[in-house]
Amino acid sequence: MIELINLSKVYGKSNTEVKALNEVNLEINEGEMIAIMGPSGSGKSTLLNILGGLDSPTSGEYLLKNRNVQNMKQKELSKVRNRTFGFVVQSFALIDHYSVFNNVMIPLDYTKLKKADKKEKIRLCLDKVGILDKSKNYPYELSGGQCQRVAIARALVNTPDVILADEPTGNLDKNNGEQIIEIFKELNKAKTTIIIITHDDEVASKCNRVIRLEDGRII
Ligand SMILES: Nc1ncnc2c1ncn2[C@@H]1O[C@H](COP(=O)(O)OP(=O)(O)O)[C@@H](O)[C@H]1O
Ligand SMILES: [Mg+2]
């Protein structure tokens, strides 16, 4: 489903140049659950952001469902991005003055669904992550683990093919972290491709493949 060919990402210019990704080749199939590991600064987030179309490579190719992402126009790219990917980050990135329900609504703002259908989708996703009873609460009223569930519900609401998670358990205690990974496992069973950046060997052991990065290269 995803193929990267000799893909590099360089930040900065000449003497301040940083090669965040260095000639990366990678193939990801539908239905995989993958851990990306590696030291801080090795290029993990850069890789995830490029996979999700949030950043673009300096050179090389990115094929998504056999289509070259670099050749897509901005408008098409954002459409593909919204349909294909759901993002989950370490800091949850919820809007504090929006209720749980309205946070999960955000990705649906750009769709043409009827209001009742939107409501139904949101309820389904909140239920899937076990937090439907908090739909009227605000993020500041929730624990970290609950906030991450809301963030996952938001990532799911457009029924993405792929979930991209950047250290999703990084701010959680062991128990909550395990529950979040269990949610990902369930989603993966239902055919969603999952790609998780993690420092935790236990999280990685739940995945069916581990990709290790070092200085922008896959080792
Ligand atoms: N926006 C940016 N501008 C300049 N350098 C960056 C930027 N983002 C990341 N880098 C650099 O690229 C390298 C890889 O960063 P990153 O992908 O965030 O690594 P990781 O997620 O593995 O910690 C690091 O050296 C980092 O400093
Ligand atoms: Mg990172």
Automatic annotation (TrEMBL):
<dbReference type="InterPro" id="IPR003439">
    <property type="entry name" value="ABC_transporter-like_ATP-bd"/>
</dbReference>
<dbReference type="Pfam" id="PF00005">
    <property type="entry name" value="ABC_tran"/>
</dbReference>
<dbReference type="InterPro" id="IPR017871">
    <property type="entry name" value="ABC_transporter-like_CS"/>
</dbReference>
<dbReference type="GO" id="GO:0005524">
    <property type="term" value="F:ATP binding"/>
</dbReference>
<comment type="similarity">
    <text>Belongs to the ABC transporter superfamily.</text>
</comment>
<keyword id="KW-0547">Nucleotide-binding</keyword>
<dbReference type="InterPro" id="IPR003593">
    <property type="entry name" value="AAA+_ATPase"/>
</dbReference>
<dbReference type="InterPro" id="IPR017911">
    <property type="entry name" value="MacB-like_ATP-bd"/>
</dbReference>
<keyword id="KW-0813">Transport</keyword>
<keyword id="KW-0067">ATP-binding</keyword>
<dbReference type="InterPro" id="IPR027417">
    <property type="entry name" value="P-loop_NTPase"/>
</dbReference>
<protein>
    <submittedName>
        <fullName>ABC transporter ATP-binding protein</fullName>
    </submittedName>
</protein>
<feature type="domain" description="ABC transporter">
    <location>
        <begin position="2"/>
        <end position="219"/>
    </location>
</feature>
